[in-house]
Design a protein that fits this description.
CATH architecture of the largest domain: Orthogonal Bundle
CATH class of the largest domain: Mainly Alpha
Shape: elongated
Distance between the termini: 52 Å
Radius of gyration: 19 Å
Number of domains: 2
Helix content: 55-70%
Number of helices: 6
CATH superfamily of the largest domain: Winged helix-like DNA-binding domain superfamily/Winged helix DNA-binding domain
């Protein structure tokens, strides 16, 4: 039996209140999930990057702050797609402090 099938079987045995609790746990677990953004210690020193690339989120955020348009970013980084930028902006909104620290660290390096 697959894990997903196991979950389905278990869910059928739970009360509505218990299912609501499980749903809260799942939402909490997924809260920090950003499709298209990965953090891997072996890529860019563990800084969050766009998947399939070595383009860190902080770099895109800083470039936008300095006046680069999305079109310019897509031209400058041909491996990026518009959806990658949308994912980067969403990640930045949720992790503003982390991104600020990375910008400061990389500007002072």
């Amino acid at each position: 039996m697959s894990p997903l099938r196991d979950v389905e079987t278990l869910l059928s045995k739970l009360s509505r209140a218990e299912k609501a609790q499980v749903l809260q746990w799942v939402v909490r677990d997924l809260y920090d999930a950003f499709p298209g953004i990965e953090t891997n210690v072996e890529v860019c020193g563990g800084e969050p990057c766009i998947v399939r690339t070595r383009v860190p989120v902080w770099l895109l955020v800083q470039a936008r702050r300095l006046g680069a348009s999305e079109a310019q970013l897509l031209d400058s980084y041909p491996s990026l797609r518009a959806e990658d930028l949308a994912n980067a902006w969403a990640f930045e909104r949720a992790h503003r402090g982390e991104i600020e620290e990375q910008i400061a660290e990389n500007e002072n390096a």
